[in-house]
Amino acid sequence: MILGTDYPTLWFLVVGGLFSGYAILDGFDLGAGAWHLFFRKEESRRIALNAIGPVWDGNEVWLVIGGGALFAGFPPVYATLLSLMYVPFMLFLACLILRAVAIEFRSKEPMRWWRQTWDVLYSVSSALLAFLLGVVLGNVLYGIPLGEGFSLQGHWLQFLHPYALLVGGTTLSLFMMHGAIYLTMKTEGRLFARVNQLLRRSMTLFILLFSLTTLVTLLFIPHLSDRFRQIPWLGVVPLLAVLSIANIPRLVTNRKYGPAFAFSSLTVSLLLFMVAIELYPVLILSTVDPKYHLTVHNAAASPASLSIMLTIAAIGAPLVLAYTAFVFYTFRGKVRMDDSSY
Amino acid sequence: MEVEILSRIQFAFTVSFHYIYPPLSIGLGLFMVISEGLYLRTRDEAYAQLTRFWTRIFALTFGIGVATGIVMEFEFGTNWATYSRYVGDIFGSALAAEGIFAFALESGFLGILLFGWNRVSPQVHFLSTLGVWLGSMFSAVWIVIANSWQQTPAGYHIVGEGMSARAEITDFWAMVFNPSSVDRLLHVWTGALLAGAFLVMSVHAWYLLKGRHQAVSTKAFRIALVIAMVGSLTQLLTGHRSAEGVAENQPAKLAALEGHFPARAAADMYLFGWVHAAENRTVGLRIPGGLSLLLHGDAEAPVTGLSAFSPADRPGAVNAVFQFYHLMVAIGMTLIALTLTAGFLWWRGSLFSQRWLLHLFVWAVLLPNIANQAGWFAAEMGRQPWVVYGLLRTSDALSAAVTARQVLFSLVLFTVLYLLLFALFLYLLNKKIVHGPAQDTPLLHRPRQEDITRTLP
């Protein structure tokens, strides 16, 4: 127990923090990637790619760390989530590889067909990654047909149910807005004007999809709002999320892109915090029978293991934040190309 | 059964493909650290050129290494769910430590290493290169610890029974320093440094044969040769210590590596041979009592053989384990011979006029890479039928929710993707090598974004 909180709950917060870091960081480069084909000119595409060039790989580290933290802290949750959603995770991995390769290879040859092929792969895989992350989140929120002996009680295609698709679309639009704001800070001239135009569209799209998701959740998935009915003051979190979202168009209109990026990052973490409140203490919700639920307590690693990992996290997290800050500081400002660029 | 075979093939395929890249990154990383360090000391432009050239190749290997590495982490959960639940309490902390201490360091500073030449001072750039290399070394630490725990579990106790049994950590440092982790880590590190050094020697030997980039190539070749000489000799020692550890902790595996069948008898050492597992015998060229002598200092000392284990507890493919192991050892000896010959000729001052030797070095890059793969195949197949030695069988470690068709789908997906990736890797590697460490444009007066956008119509 630390500060009246048990180890499993503390580790739940650590994992949540890591996922939120991942969503903020990889979120903007996935979003920027999803826009890639909306830029027509070769130079524009290179600038957009080099805007994320020095940082995307570091951003992806947060996925590795977050995945490791989930594995370490809640092994049955990691094992169950990944094995029950085998096909979406395999597609996710395939996209991850294709995207990494496309970034690495696209500018290595001058041929038009070469670059166009990699551009399409890069953009489509970026968009699919964002969408699949949302689909997995949608399944976690809605519940998974988890039965006896960690088996799947249902068709393997069931992960594509409408609610999961809706959350997938919302996530994609959120990341595209987030990515577009990032690109406004990195571009100039005509490309900047184009990004600005796309940013406005994505804000509208995100706000529409977010409202729709909220409505559907409240009407059809009551278990996700139980907690807020039980403990009304927790309602301050969704309220803050809505205020934070509303602030983004205001800042964009006033051409304050840095603060807008801060608020879209805040939005991402507040939305994930809402998810955490809605789920806790359940991590995997079985739609078959509540006795198969995996919770923060019945799925946690041993207290000895959790206390070791909390020590590792306490030492490691400041280091990771320091490198991340240093790298972003080094590459601050508009994109400058040189012969080491992509 | 089908799910088991397919999952094993998929894991073996994805992990051995992945393992082409990290050793190269670790090995090239050390080379870059040395060459950039020499540049800072001497301000000789040749070292700056070398560092930049090898950084570009490093970027290629690193990028593919990261992408294929994430696959490994996920596969524990997707294909080996029971295993993940069983070992998560222990394995998880090693993976988390890898991510937070090693991978973050590596990938964070990679951006500065690749793109920061004009953004930071030469000293800070050097520190970034060092950070990336140390990150890759630390990464190996945690991964090898986790794997060694599967070979020689320590610092745990078992909780629960049957399907819900799992290992829980009792002593973190006993888990970290389990009986095999230090020897195996040194062996893996050295193997990685050899892979990098031989790639550097291969490329620069080729330039020397073609009469290109002479000045930088002799410098690079010498640096890499020193690494390779020290490395190949060290490998003899770490390999021997690993084998002693296997003899003590995993007798069935040792017996398979050496093709030794009699339950308790003096053991021969085979230079090469063939295992007839069904008939419990091995034929080949051998040194009588050689293994006993090497392990116990006495040619008569008994060594436990495969017959001491019930067939269910023996590795399934003894001949394959034997062949992979002997291939690795044979390559190790060849590397020692090669590097010592080259070192001798360097001392005599005629290294770079020996065209035959340079020709050999162009192709020798394949050897350490094959040895790294063969060594891992011997280590992992020799551990069978256990996924955690003596505790959890591979056949009990699968995901209950995954069907054979799903695994077949993903196996085909990865095969297609990785073949494409490998072809592209070779193509681009070749292109970069052919292009060579050309004079880079001066550091100032590069095109900036403003200049590019201004020229847009």
Q: How would you sum up the major sheet of chain B?
A: 2 strands, antiparallel
Strand segment tally of chain B = 8
H/E element sequence of chain A: HHHHHHHHHHHEEH
The arrangement of helices and strands of chain B along the chain is HHHHHEEHHHHEEEHEHHHEEHH
Beginning-to-end CA distance, first to last residue of chain A: 48 Å
Q: Radius of gyration of chain A over alpha carbons?
A: 20 Å
| Beta strand % of chain A | under 5%
- Read across the widest sheet of chain B, the strand sequence of neighbours is 1-2
Total beta strand runs of chain A: 2
Helix-residue proportion of chain A: over 70%
Structural class by SSE content of chain A: mainly alpha
Helix content of chain B: over 70%
Mean pLDDT of chain B: 88
> How far do the termini of chain B sit from each other?
63 Å
Give the oligomeric state: heterodimer
- Rg of Cα set of chain B: 24 Å
Query: Strand order across the biggest sheet of chain A?
Result: 1-2
List the helices and strands and how they pair.
The complex is a heterodimer of chains A (342) and B (457).
Chain A: H1 7-35, H2 42-52, H3 56-73, H4 75-84, H5 86-105, H6 112-142, H7 162-186, H8 189-220, H9 226-230, H10 236-253, H11 257-279, E1 282-284, E2 294-295, H12 303-330
Antiparallel strand pairs in A: 1-2
Helix pairs in contact in A: 1-3, 1-6, 1-7, 1-11, 1-12, 3-4, 3-12, 5-6, 6-7, 7-8, 7-11, 10-11
Chain B: H1 2-18, H2 21-42, H3 45-79, H4 81-115, H5 122-151, E1 156-159, E2 166-169, H6 172-176, H7 181-210, H8 214-249, H9 251-258, E3 264-266, E4 269-276, E5 281-287, H10 290-296, E6 302-304, H11 318-347, H12 355-364, H13 366-383, E7 386-388, E8 392-393, H14 404-435, H15 449-454
Antiparallel strand pairs in B: 1-2, 3-6, 4-5, 7-8
